[in-house]
Write a structure and sequence with these properties.
4-stranded antiparallel sheet, single chain, mainly beta, about 5% helix, about 190 residues
Length: about 190
């Protein structure tokens, strides 16, 4: 999802990357969802790790948090276009608007990683075991997760390139499909 002063209707669901962070012109958040319906409700989830691949050397620093999404949403087919078929800053893509622009999510993050300027491309892993237990056990619906920068303020951003803003491979990443987001679950009966 993308918010800027110019447009809030853009959908990025068909793009090869998703962005997380803020720069002088925009705030970006990533939505992900994994189907866990094949796991039986009685499965004992021992671990669940969300892995996303950062595709470029970081220009900024910050904490990327994973938050539980609380409203159903649709991915859409846009590539920085207003397609009307998926989540945007204002809509979940399934009818009405988000209750809060930028998406409906739990304010408390379930996991986070700290990013430093100069970090090279590589995997970021988040322990979301408790969240997956809740999905599988029926504590709350699986509306996916949102990745967002903990501090999305534009300050001290002065240009597009010097801020806390970076890219992750999406489920449409074609350069190397093995770098697409993964959810690894370990469970027993």
């Amino acid at each position: 999802m993308y918010r800027s002063d110019k447009t809030v209707c853009t959908n990025w669901g068909g793009y090869t990357l998703f962005h997380v962070g803020a720069n002088a012109l925009s705030v970006r958040r990533g939505l992900l969802q994994f189907d866990v319906s094949s796991l039986p409700r009685w499965a004992r989830i021992q671990s669940a790790t969300l892995s996303v691949y950062a595709t470029e050397t970081l220009r900024g620093a910050g904490v990327v948090g994973v938050h539980r999404v609380t409203t159903p949403w649709a991915e859409g087919s846009g590539i920085n276009t207003c397609t009307g078929d998926g989540a945007t800053w204002l809509t979940a893509g399934l009818g009405p608007a988000w209750l809060t622009p930028g998406g409906d999510f739990s304010g408390t993050g379930v996991a986070s990683v700290t990013k430093q300027a100069g970090d090279t491309p590589g995997w970021d892993s988040f322990d979301i075991t408790g969240l997956v237990r809740g999905w599988v056990g029926g504590t709350y619906p699986n509306d996916g997760v949102m990745l967002k920068l903990d501090d999305e303020s534009f300050s001290p951003c002065t240009t597009i390139t010097n801020c806390n803003y970076w890219a992750y491979a999406s489920n449409d990443y074609k350069l190397d499909p093995t770098l697409r987001p993964k959810l690894t679950i370990s469970y027993r009966w």
